[in-house]
Amino acid sequence: MSPIQSSAHRAENQSPPFSGHNAFRSDPLLKDIAADMPRGLRADFETVGKFVSSIEAQDLARIANRSVPELRTHDGSGNRIDQVDFHPSWHALMRRSVSIGLQGSVWEGRREEKGFAHQARGIRFYLTAGLECGHLCPLTMTNASIAAIMAAPRIEKSWAPQVVSRRYDSSHRPAMQKTGVTIGMGMTEKQGGTDVRANESRAVRAGEGVYRLEGHKWFLSAPMSDAFVMLAKTGRGGEGEALSCFLVPRILEDGTLNGLRLQRLKDKLGNRSNASSEVEFSDTYGFLLGGEGDGIRTILDMVTLTRLDCALASAGMMRASLAEAVHHCRHRRVFGELLIDQSLMSRVLADLALDVAAATALSLRLARAFDKARDDPAEAAIARLMTPVVKYWVCKIAPSVIYEVMECMGGNGYVEDRALARHYREAPVNAIWEGSGNVMALDVLRVLTRGKELCEVALQSIQKDLGAAGPKTLDVLRACMAVAESDEGAGRLLTEQLALAAAAAELTRLGAGHVAEAFVETRLGGAWRATYGMLDSRFNARQIVDLLYPPAS
């Protein structure tokens, strides 16, 4: 080989592979959040952090998203099988995530997680989201399904042990013959979408607690799940109709299919490793969850838990993406100088880091409220108001954060060889799934009009944790509330202001020092900013980056 050819193939100004570190150990904010948890849990987080950063795990994520699921409606003999085939990499990711309890650890009642169940699972979920989010979709629904299944004690008794089992079983058998199950969802229909009251699927009583369903679903999430939480109308037509909630098995106890005919898989922008489908069904049996007509009330508890996961996943993707960009900028030279040392770049990275830190702190603050809600009315109030607030803001900023991260890496970020492209395609789904931005804003307004005392509890908590910035921030929030009470169109304004204030409060409570101060002044101070990189020179951008993304030792 000639010297010219040899030189051309030497990559002397490329960052080394971003792997082999520990995603938990290298995240100071996450370690601070976990500091009060038992040592055994922190050891678990380190194990997860090591795995998700490994080359082997990254390969599984990459292959699972390249080898998309395939629908087989019939077998070679013409028999209807309605089966979706996944690449072994998908099953490997599922097996690993089920083994660490992402499908239901909050319901296990483990002694070491007492008081921390949602937070502990939240940290494991957040770390795993930085690896691959598609396989987390069915695990989110499986974990949340117990909240709906609990409305039917007889069903809960037989199904809950299967849900919380940490053994992944992908075999096509009746649920009660398996070592563990996953649960999907079927809520939306093509004529209504978010407006589930427009659903046309119907259910007729066939026995005690058993109904026969007929209809269609425009999105049946994770169609290879062992059962689905679904909505259908019960009643005799007219004004007496109401939505009820059902647990619908995919395979009946005798091994026959339960009438769910998959029409096609959705060709999605992101979430490629996971299957979403359209389905028609008739003579399909389901178990009633809750009372007739209580469908929306029953499923809302499940939806609340899925919204927490949407925020955690978005925060996890943002953290992993920005960590790679910081790594790149510490090794890449442009115009003879490392990118990290150039003021324009360091300010962009620091500005991004503030939002990612806020999203992380805010999501896990919500998980803490979930842990304490049963015994603390104030935390229950915070959980009710802040679930749509956190879901709205954290999920909504993810696409813009990850895009800006991509720009920091230039062409190296705009290729499929990096996880960044996968995260960017994935980012919008969490803002859309389980309630888009307007739905979240309407939910916040619902709390404002029907339970204003809950808002007051949350405001007092924010003021207390914010310290010196609390009184002025509260004045702004109360002004936003007054506007939103008379103008529904201001719902997004109120929701975003609540998110920013709560995030600032949590960063301050955590003792995040310079990071918290910079976030308070730039996000709550009304400064002009439309893109990232607008930090004033009085903030030490490089210090913020190094604090939140410490250089490898």
Report what the structure shows.
It is a single chain. Helix 10 (343-372) packs antiparallel against helix 11 and helix 10 (343-372) packs across helix 18. Helices cover 52% and strands 13% of the residues. By secondary structure, it is of the alpha+beta class. The protein contains 18 helices and eleven strands. The two termini are 37 Å apart. A five-stranded mixed β-barrel has the order 3-5-9-7-6. The protein has a two-stranded antiparallel sheet with strand order 1-2. A two-stranded antiparallel ribbon has the order 10-11.
| Alpha carbon gyration radius | 24 Å
String of helices and strands:
HHHHEEHHHHEEEEEEEHEEHHHHHHHHH
Shape: globular
**Average pLDDT:** 95
Describe the strand arrangement of the main beta sheet, using strand numbers.
Answer: 3-5-9-7-6
Largest sheet: 5 strands, mixed, barrel
Distance between the amino and carboxyl termini: 37 Å
Low-confidence stretches: none
- Total DSSP helices: 18
Beta-strand content bin = 5-15%
Structural class by SSE content:
alpha+beta
Residues in helices, as a percent range: 40-55%
Please count the beta strands (DSSP E, at least 2 residues each).
11
